[in-house]
Amino acid sequence: MADPIRKHKFDLNNYLIDHKHQFSFYQLMRLLRVLSDHSDETLYENTTIQSPLDFSFPASPISELKIDNNEESKPFFSLTTSILGLYGPGSPLPSYYTEDLMDADKDDLVSGRAFIDMLQARLFQLLFESSRKYNMMLSINEYNDTSVLNRLFCMTGFGEKKVREAVFGSNVTDTKSYELIRYMGLFSQFPKSALGLQTILRDALETKAVKSKPCISQMVDIPEDQLNFLGKNNNTIGENSIIGEKVIDRMGKFRISIGPVKKEALSKFLPGNKGYKTIKRLTVCYLFDHFNFDLEIIVHEKNTPICLGDNKTNIVGVWAWLTEDDKKLSDKSTIIQ
To answer: How far is Cα 272 from Cα 274, in angstroms, rounded to an integer?
Structure first.
């Protein structure tokens, strides 16, 4: 029996040989590439690909597979596939080419088949390489192709590394900024919407308790050229005259509301913690125009009373609220500018 903690080592070689009929040509080549230390060059050097020397209808793309394990070097692979090929059932050439090779094989004359195998070896290599040209997942996960990542970053609007550094900091890594690619469709959509931002934050924070509230009032400064001056512009009462230097504005600010949340989840949304940084980072990335926003954290009513002696949960207005009657407790909120 296997150790309860450790599992048996999976023998990929024997599994491929026993279940070769279950794999397509592309799947098998990808797995053989794993056995070749993820190197295309090693795979091509140690792999021989042939077509079946008959006209029978193929039951599966792979009809034969042999793996020769060599302790001193990488394993050698020999496989027979019915796709493509210059002879056999999948050949685009006239059938008499295959018939001649079959007659020669009866007389143990294999030079003709070996010559054609040499010619079509490059065809199989190109066929395998073409399978990942438009498959971004393979290019990124198995080939670590940074050029594909750069194209995806360009589609999100963060193609330049300097732009990503401005959002994530100077020590940004591609792995850390991968989360932007996940929301490429929403980042590239115009005009921006509150629902789009809400969708991004719900996914990133793994909670549905996120809402984006537009048109939050704020006091903004009136530009100097629009202030009241006697004998100049903006001095007509009831039309363009405004008393004071500030005015209430509802077009330049929105609020991100999260909750109700439990006591355990509240701390991660406070400034300096992971949840707060994620909200700020994604919101700044998503906004196209300059908007002010604040964060509202709604605390569940059962977590609002003060707990004496607990230095972490007795901050009034953040973790706890003062009320006249415990029976009148309700959900409380903390607004972080």
So the answer is: 7
Q: Which amino acid is at 10?
A: F
Question: Mind listing the pLDDT tens digit for each residue in 256-315?
Answer: 888 787 777 777 877 778 888 888 888 888 887 788 888 888 876 665 555 566 665 555
Which runs of E-coded beta strand occur in the chain? Answer: 47-50, 62-68, 76-81, 210-213, 218-221, 246-249, 253-261, 292-299, 332-336
Q: What angle do helix axes 25-35 and 111-130 make, rounded to 10 degrees?
A: 90
The number of residues making up the chain comes to 337
Q: Which residues contact 189 (CB under 8 A, 6 or more apart)?
A: 196
* Digit-coded pLDDT (tens) for 94-124: 998 899 999 998 888 888 899 999 999 999 9
- 161-178: string of b/e by CB count within 10 Å (b at 16+)? eebbeeebeeebeeeebe
